[in-house]
Amino acid sequence: MREETDWQPTEEEVAWTRAAVEQLDDDGGVWSPHGLEYQRHGNSLKLVSMVHHAGTVEAHSRICKVMDDMGWAVHDDSVERVSHEVPPELIASQQEEELKRIQHIVSGWLCTNEECGEHIVNMPLHDVAWVNHGKQPFVNPQTGDEGEADRWLAHIHCHSCGTEIQMNPLDYGYIAGEDLFYTWRYSPTHAWRVLTRESTVALIDSGESGTALGSFYDDNEVPPHMQGTYCQQILLSELEEE
User: Fold this and answer.
1) Pairwise CA distance, residues 234 & 242, whole Å
2) Global pTM?
3) Is the same domain home to 196 and 171?
4) Which residues are bridge partners to 146 per DSSP?
5) 3 state SS of 184
6) Are 129 and 180 in contact (CB under 8 A)?
C-alpha cells in the first residue's frame, strides 16, 4: 500500500508523532492526520480509510517511515479508499463532529517530557512564539505536486517543567482554539488579533481602524496564517486575563 519516498523524518517529528499515538487507546484508539484514519492496536497502527489522492498517499508513506523509526508496525493491506464527494448538506455537520473528535483527542496530549505528565491544554498557550524553521520538502495535498515551503511551528513552554514543545500550526489551533490561533505576538507587550467581518465593520463604523498584515511587520516575519488578515492591536496583558 505504501509507496517509496525519499523524505526522512526529523527527531522532532518522530518525538511529536510518538507523543500523539502513545496517548491513544491501545485497543482501537483513532488517529486521523492528513485525510487518513488509523486505529491503534498495541504498538501498531492499522490504516482504516484514506482519501485516495497523491498527497494523502505521500503522507501515509511518511507516517510509515516515522513508525519504522519508532519500531511500530503499520498494517495497510485492507484499507477503504474514500474517493466520493461529500454531499454539501453534510459537510458542515461532519466538520463539526470531526472538530469535536479531534479536540477530544488533543485534550489528552501530555508534555513531551515523559517525566512531567502535564496536559498541554493546561499550559500557557497564549505565550506562543511562531518560528520559521526554513524550507522543507512539501507535497500539496490537493494536487500532489512536490516542492518546498517554509515550515512554521508554534513554540510553547510547559509551565511545570520548562520543556519547549514545538507544535505544527494545525495541532496548536486545535488545542488552543481559534482566538489564540489568530492572535500573533509581535513584541513583548503587544499582539495583533484577526477581526471577523462583523468586528471589522463595527470598528470602522466607530471611527477607528485596524491594520492589514503583509509578510512583514516591524521587521518581523508574519506567520502565514496571519498574512492578508485585518487585525486590531491588543495588549498581551489582555491575553493573560482571558
Assistant:
1) 12
2) 0.63
3) no
4) 139
5) strand
6) no
